[in-house]
Every structure is written in C-alpha cells, then in structure tokens.
Design brief:
The chain contains two helices and six strands, in the order βββββαβα. It is of the alpha+beta class and about 120 residues long. Bound molecules: iron/sulfur cluster (SF4) (2 copies).
Length: about 120
C-alpha cells in the first residue's frame, strides 16, 4: 500500500527530497504525474485511472505535506524501506489503509512510473 502523511506533520520538508518517485509535495502545491517520472501524455495507470501526465493537479492538502498515492511505491524497486518514514522526525508517514497493494502491485507501479 502507499504511505500517507498524517496531520501530525510539522512541515519540516525532510521527506520531500528523499522520495525516488517525487510523490511528496508541500502543502498547497500543484503537482503533476510527470514530476520525477518518465510519464508523458495521456496514460492509464495500472489501477485503471486515466490521466494526463503534464496536466497540473490540485493539491491534496492545503496545510501539510502530502503524498500522491498513485506515485508512491513504498520505495519498492529503490530502497528496502519507505524513505519518507525513515527520515520523518515525528513518525507521521504511515501506511495508507485505503490503498491496498501487495509488493507485486508496487513493483508494477514502479516500472510504470519509470520506463527508462
Ligand atoms: Fe516516496 Fe517512498 Fe515515501 Fe512512497 S514511501 S512517498 S515512494 S519516499
Ligand atoms: Fe511532515 Fe514528516 Fe515530511 Fe517533515 S518529514 S514534512 S514532518 S511528513
């Protein structure tokens, strides 16, 4: 499953540069699927959702850092553990129970996000 940031976040920013998928954004920041990935144009995610990679998307939170679940692979394919959780000083990067994925799903997502 993806990782999510709880409202205990203190907005320190330590997690953002650690994410290999560029899935973490500052509060109120617009984001794109193409940020930090090889995605281009109109595509369909492994979960069936269609999107345009370069289109600006609405922030998912206006007050604290947030993680785009569609871009989070729990760091699978890059690291042995979620890097955001490893560096967070207040331990507020936790599994997102709403995004059920097994390791195979996460590795498929990683391959989808980075084709090169
Ligand atoms: Fe990024 Fe890894 Fe954290 Fe997911 S678990 S948001 S891929 S750093
Ligand atoms: Fe928030 Fe933790 Fe990220 Fe700092 S490292 S911005 S406290 S989630």
């Amino acid at each position: 499953m993806a990782i999510k940031i709880t409202d205990e976040c203190i907005n320190c920013g330590a997690c953002e540069p650690e994410c290999p998928n560029n899935a973490i954004y500052e509060a109120a920041e617009e984001w794109k699927y193409s940020d930090g990935t090889t995605l281009v144009g109109t595509m369909v995610l492994p979960n069936g959702k269609e999107f345009n990679a370069e289109e600006l998307q609405e922030p998912l939170d206006d007050e604290i850092y947030f993680i785009v679940a569609d871009k989070c692979t729990e760091c699978k394919g890059f690291h042995n553990e979620p890097q955001c959780a490893a560096v967070c000083p207040v331990d507020c990067c936790v599994p997102d129970e709403d995004t059920k994925e097994v390791e195979e799903d996460l590795l498929t997502k990683k391959s989808f996000l980075h084709t090169k």
